[in-house]
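When time allows, look over one protein, given below as sequence and tokens. The question is which stretches look regular and which look disordered:
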Amino acid sequence: MRILIYGAGAVGGFLGGILTAAGADVTLVARGAHHDAMKQRGLILEGKVSGRPEPIRVKVCRPGEEQGRYDLIVVGLKSQQIAGAAAHMVGLLAKDGMILLGQNGLPYWYFEKLDSPLRGSRLTSVDPDGTLAKTIPLDAIIGGVTNKPADLVEPGRIRLADQPTDRLVIGELDNRITPRLAAIKAVIEPAGCTVVVSDNIRAVKWRKLMSNGVFNPLGALTQSNARQIGDYEPTRRVARLMMDEVLAVAAAVGIIPDMTADQMIDDVRKRVGILSSTLQDVRFGRELELDAPVNAVIDVGRLTHVATPYLQIGSACAGLLNRRIVDDGVAFAPVAVKKA
């Protein structure tokens, strides 16, 4: 199986690195200094369990330099970046090739291949002009959810926080268990990443949304990790209110996650205090990923007539922060101050 990691950031780089170390035929696509560092010295994975003692000599290229066709394209881009690369990626697919979309939040295809009165409804927050729906063949898509805390600490170096819940969950849009899911598992799992095949990938996405749909925007606004938000009683109350809305919207489309809001908050208070990808983007001055994890939930709430006032407040405030980052070209990083 020829594999392309299109967007080899923290999580994509981790997958590309372990697959390379396991002998898979994999190419990583990256830009700028990250590309240059991997090309020159290899990829460094730091982690007590999933790290590697030596730099991994990965096969890396820039967008447009890919060679041939690929059986599996793992898309490591943020959700708002996919439309700009969609046509190019589709052109790289082999016959019967697959595109694994494992972005956080609700995907643009959520109501496709689904037995629901809302089948065919478009989530305008994640596919405003229909580019993705028109460009990526539905039959090529594999849904995914990645649970692997990772941080691109510098070009070519990824820090990994190993957790018992680390895994990649994959599933078909119509919830069938197919041979191609087994083929993906057979390639990735021996490399060092647990792969779970799901017969309800949407339910898995809602489960993760309970966390990143709430703690990502709150973390960006408060410069805090999820554990800090959960430990501080006032923000814990706000998180609970936002999480209740996520659960209400999920229930409106027939999904009851296998974890309550209280259980999720208790869980994050036990986690390693790693920064969310959204807070990392704030500190590096990168566009924030808010549409799929937050605004798409608000979209579904409108479609199902479920009120989401607290999610809308969080989205509005984080959205204005994003405007300052994008329009003003600034980053917001902590600066140490001397105490009197």
In short: The longest strand covers residues 93-101. The domain at 2-199 is CATH 3.40.50.720 (Rossmann fold). The mean pLDDT is 95. DSSP finds twelve helices and eleven strands in the chain.
